[in-house]
Amino acid sequence: MVVAWSSGFVGMRFSTDYAPVFLVVLWRCAALSVCLLPLVAREIVHTPRTVLLRQAAIGLFALAGYIAGVAKGIELGVSAGLCALIANLLPIGTVAISSIFLRERIPRRTWAGMALGLAGVLMVSRDALTLGSAPVWAYALPVAGMMSLAVATVWQQRAASRIGSLSLLSTLWVHCVVSCAVFAGLQMSQGSVMPIATAGFAASVGWTAVISTIGGYGLYWVCLRRSSPARVSSVLFLSPSVTFVWAWALFGEPLSWPMLAGTIVSGLGIVVMTTSIRRRLALADKG
User: Fold this and answer.
1) Phi, psi of 106 (to 5 degrees)
2) I need a labelling partner for 151 at 20 to 30 A (CA). Which of 64, 133, 198, 223 fits?
């Protein structure tokens, strides 16, 4: 999941050389909406409208809200490194929502694990962090995008346990359809929505559709159905490290010992977090 999820940041960087980000995301969602339809049409037709509407709302937060916040922040001048760092604070956002709004008790061990994970992320990302040239308010956009996905994460985990939940492919289809409409409107406000007839544009759409969306988002929702939001999102502390490996393999960007050290620290944080969550769940089952 982490490998596929991290491909999205590399794909976004790759696509900016060939087309506006919103145009690529629009056609990424459009392509998946068309390709998945034959596979999910029967289930969609027989699914209650309330279930579809709930998944549509989750999709707006998970896909449209998250990508729009991060992409628009980069477009306005927030550095890509800082946007990636904020996006990878998803475990903290998820736990904060569960703690503040759902009144869930978060053990100190979990907070300690998050602190270790954050320290590791900062170590890995330190050479890529710059403030950029964006207006002050623009720095709130990637934060809003991250929190949008955190809301969707908690909501989806709770919705998955209800009767009438959609299958994975149908869930992805609904999310792509509603996000397609959002990004069509965003791109129309900036220019044409017509695809660009170049190999680079096609590669950008194909990469982000197959690896980032079906692979990254798909595996994320699969894991979320089997575990808690905090536990699933915690492994994304490793996303910066894997992203830099992607960048090294595709763009020849250098790796460094601080990146390795940060990866180890993040890994320790994940172990601490997941161990704490596992113990809490075991105690709950005994009770």
Assistant:
1) -105, 120
2) 133
